[in-house]
Specification:
By secondary structure, the protein is an all-alpha fold. It is 74% helix and 0% strand.
Length: 418
């Protein structure tokens, strides 16, 4: 790059300083472009064999940007991505021209334990540059930090130590050690899932299945349990136990007959070529549950629509209309309009009235216009457009004190005979 190129790079890195008194929204785009330029220039240095020049530059750039983000708005995620890019290039430069292992180890540990929570440190990306000595130093420093965690509410330091210990175990290549460390903090289905993934990748499926089942026993519900159950079903299929995979899905559905659990059951049944009777049985379960518990009615309607039972979905929802969420009411009337347009006029009108009165929805008028278009199509399907025109005039009269809505009606060309 030469002397001039080095000088330009120094100027760019200096621009990554940030005055904490500055408006947090000011200059974000320019700052982002500068960070990207630094990373791009350093990549060029690495490509031409001058990674040793890039290493100290990138360390300074990462430190400055990490500090700057404490005083800048980065809610869009753009600046966070820029910092992640700098870290990625820095790790690459260190692999090409490793700095002193002890110094790099100390910096990484300090960044995780004392930093603001960013950027992410993924130890396997740094392991080649650290080497055995550097990794040993990371472990030593983490042990020191662990000994210093004495307050039970010092959650950040405790998290940082655990985060690094788990990564040290991962890069060691010792599967049993990795599992042992992960198992020290079994507070969620996600942690069990990490153990299952490690054992699965190590081609130890029986142990992975055992851990998955333990995790689901301890944490049977929630989005993390869904992911863990997915891992278990996949392992059972891969190890030649399709019936067991379907049984796991069926058990989960019986406990919580939700649309998500039904989709999972349906997918596993299809993938394993199991008897379609599983689907019918599941329908019976959710019908019975919805009959006694109103919170399962939306799930029943979604299940019926998913399986092509639109007619049953309509009659089920229409019979308990007040218990059906607004989203599903719209979906149901739209499905019914296609086959029975005369039946949806009053439901559409009720939806339009409710939408217009929903003061919490800033888009209520736009949504009402959409419903009106569909209602007009329902009248047109039975050659009764004049009746829609009469309804429209009544609607205009009722809402004559809503000039914004009336203007939107005009803009949408809602006039008699249109």
């Amino acid at each position: 790059m030469g002397v001039q190129g080095d000088s330009e790079l120094t100027v760019l890195v200096d621009r990554l300083r940030r005055d904490r008194r500055r408006d947090p929204y000011s200059g974000r785009d320019s700052y982002s472009r500068t960070a990207r330029k630094v990373a791009d220039r350093c990549e060029e240095l690495i490509e031409v064999g001058e990674a040793s020049v890039a290493v100290p530059v990138l360390r300074k750039a990462v430190d400055r940007m990490t500090n700057a983000l404490m005083y800048m708005d980065s809610s869009s995620g753009v600046l966070g991505n820029d910092l992640a890019y700098l870290m990625e290039v820095y790790a690459r430069a260190c692999r090409a021209a490793p700095p002193r292992p002890a110094g790099l180890a100390a910096w990484l540990v300090k960044l995780v334990c004392d930093g603001p929570g960013w950027p992410d440190v993924v130890l396997r990306d740094w392991a080649p540059a650290l080497g055995p000595k550097g990794l040993a130093e990371v472990a030593r420093l983490v042990d020191e930090r662990a000994a210093a965690v004495t307050e039970p509410d010092d959650w950040h330091r405790a998290w940082a130590v655990r985060y690094l210990r788990e990564q040290i175990a991962e890069v060691s290549g010792d599967v049993d050690r990795h599992v042992q460390v992960l198992a020290e903090h079994l507070v969620s289905a996600d942690q069990y899932g990490r153990i299952v993934t490690v054992l699965g990748q190590a081609e130890r499926p029986a142990e992975a299945i055992g851990w998955a089942r333990r995790g689901l026993t301890a944490h049977p519900s929630g989005h993390q349990a869904v992911a863990l159950r997915d891992l278990l079903a996949r392992l059972l299929i891969e190890t030649g136990e399709p019936e067991a995979a379907v049984a796991e899905r069926r058990t989960a559905f019986d406990v919580q007959p939700t649309i998500d659990n039904f989709r999972s059951l349906l997918a596993t049944v299809a993938e394993t070529d199991q008897d379609a009777a599983h689907t019918e049985r599941a329908l019976t379960v959710v019908r019975e549950r919805a009959a006694g518990q109103a919170e399962y009615l939306p799930h029943l309607i979604d299940v019926l629509i998913l399986t092509g039972r639109d007619n049953e979905a309509w009659h089920t929802g229409h019979a308990r209309w007040d218990e059906v969420p607004a989203r599903q009411r719209v979906e149901l009337v739209e499905l019914r309009r296609r086959t029975h347009p005369a039946e949806v006029r009053e439901p559409y009108q009720a939806l339009i009235d409710a939408q217009l009165l929903d003061s919490h929805d800033k888009r209520r008028y736009d949504r009402a216009i959409t419903l009106l278009r569909n209602l007009r199509e329902a009248y047109a399907a039975t050659d009764e457009v004049t009746r829609f025109d009469a309804y429209l005039e009544t609607l205009r009269a009722e809402h004559r004190r809503r000039p914004t809505f009336l203007a939107k009606l005009d803009a949408a060309r809602f006039r008699p005979g249109r």
